[in-house]
User: What shape does this take?
Amino acid sequence: MKTLGIVYWPKKGSVELNAKRIHKEWGEETADLISLRDIEPEGLLNYSCLIFGCSTVGADSWRDAYTGNPWNMFFLRMNRAKTDLKDRKVALFGLGDQVLYPEHYVDEMARISNELKAHGAVIVGRWPADGYEHTDSKALKDGYFLGLALDEHNQADKSMERIHAWINDLKKNHFF
Assistant: This one.
């Protein structure tokens, strides 16, 4: 069994691209890369640590954020199954466009954090907000994002450097 599960949605875009980068940076031999649609809530219990990745609205588009959003269905299944993530360490990463949507940058990380904490998870791996151009985010607290914030539209050149630093911090200070 691999020790880390990296769960992400949506597929075929910047979230999946960076989930793959995080998987490679972490070490593919000790982590599984899993699309949200390919895991049931009980499957999370197979991992001692988890990373969840999402877009600003958690869906393929703003229209899909409220109807047909796989995160909504996943958390509904978690609630029904009463999935217990007690004391399980979970890190988050989010993708967004801080220039086009500066008031909603990586907002979905906050909702995912709240849902996972309601099931006992401990959220780790916050990331400093310095160097970003957004105006607001629900994922921002005391000058830090709840997890790694990435912007492939405006700061793609910083993604790999940020991923490397974030993974090193997770390994050194939070996971294992």
